[in-house]
Design a protein that fits this description.
Blueprint lengths: L1 E6 L2 E4 L4 E9 L4 E9 L6 E6 L5 E3 L7 E6 L4 E6 L8 E13 L2 E8 L3 E6 L1
Parallel strand pairs: 2-11
Antiparallel strand pairs: 1-3, 3-8, 4-5, 4-9, 5-6, 7-8, 9-10, 9-11
């Protein structure tokens, strides 16, 4: 089992910044993808940003140029630096980790979710 602990959410004015952190612990063998999702009231959960073990990243179009995802493999931690925040960024942000266990010629993947952290951007 892998546990995820998120931190860094809060209330900020439009144009401000926040940094989210998510630390993974437990029986970790290897982590493939680490990412952040968000869910606003009445909307589906959506991918915000993700980073692969090799460092490749991808972002939702709505956050490109404003958000930066990074990871510290030694600490099994993923970060989301959010700048130029907008009211439409208001949501619960969830950390997601894809755990990987190699079994000979193939790998088993398991997704884990954090408990979510509220980000509120006031206008």
């Amino acid at each position: 089992q892998v546990q995820l602990v998120e931190s860094g959410g809060g209330l900020v004015q439009a144009g401000g910044s926040l940094r989210l952190s998510c630390a993974a612990s437990g029986s970790i063998v290897s982590i493939n993808v680490m990412g952040w999702y968000r869910q606003a009231p009445g909307k589906q959960r959506e991918l915000v940003a993700a980073v692969r073990s090799g460092g490749n990243t991808n972002y939702a179009d709505s956050v490109k140029g404003r958000f930066t995802i990074s990871r510290d493999n030694a600490k099994n931690t993923v970060y989301l630096q959010m700048n130029s925040l907008k009211p439409e960024d208001t949501a619960v942000y969830y950390c997601n980790v894809q755990h990987r266990v190699y079994r000979g010629s193939y790998a088993d993947y398991t997704n884990y979710w954090g408990q979510g952290t509220q980000v509120t951007v006031s206008s």
